[in-house]
Amino acid sequence: MADLNNIPDVTLLLGMYKMNQTNTPGIGTVLTDHSLNFIPEAHCYLKIGTARFDGTTIKSDITKIEKDILIEKEIRPEQVATYKVAYHKTFLKDWIEENNMELDFETIWMLREKCIKNLTG
Predict the structure, then answer these.
(1) Nearest partner of 72 among 4, 18, 9, judged by Cα
(2) Does residue 15 register a pLDDT over 90?
(3) How many alpha carbons lie under 13 Å from residue 43 in its C-beta half-sphere?
(4) Rounded Cα–Cα distance for residues 22 and 117 (Å)
(5) Hey, which residues does 95 pair with through a beta bridge?
(6) Of the candidates 120, 114, 115, 97, which has an alpha carbon nearest to the alpha carbon of residue 21?
(7) pLDDT digit string (tens) for 62-93?
């Protein structure tokens, strides 16, 4: 929309943040039930000038996750679907390996899916 309306200084960001019960309360107890403090989650939002804006829902508030952002990168709108998922999976696999996690990728991804289901359920 910003591009179509020639609105300057708007970028789409893909952020990886530490999803937990505090910053994403709707996920329930999935993580704590499996002794996890967080799972890296991919989330898209806008940067307008120097400010971040999350327009996912009317209740979305980027300040809830700002301090937990691990990395963010600019992406194009057409990258939101396939690229975002591929990047997220690669990030998780690296995170699991770097942290010598006892849980494997498939288990972590399944727990992540349960969290997302709880958010949307």
Answers:
(1) 18
(2) yes
(3) 30
(4) 17
(5) none
(6) 115
(7) 999 999 999 999 999 999 999 999 999 999 99
Q: What is the 3-state secondary structure (H, E, C) of 59-90?
A: CCCHHHCHHHEEEEEEECHHHCCHHHHHHHHH
Would you give the DSSP letter of residue 25?
Answer: G
Cβ(11)–Cβ(88) below 8 Å: no
Q: Is the pLDDT of residue 2 over 90?
A: no
In sign, the C-alpha dihedral spanning 86, 92, 95, 96 is: negative
Q: Quick one: which H or E segment has residue 98?
A: helix 82-98
Terminal CA-CA length for the chain: 29
pTM (2 decimals)? 0.91
- Contact indicator for 15, 60 with CB cutoff of 8 Å: no
Which amino acid appears at position 70 of this protein? Answer: L
For residue 101, the one-letter residue type is M
1 pLDDT exceeds 80?
Answer: no
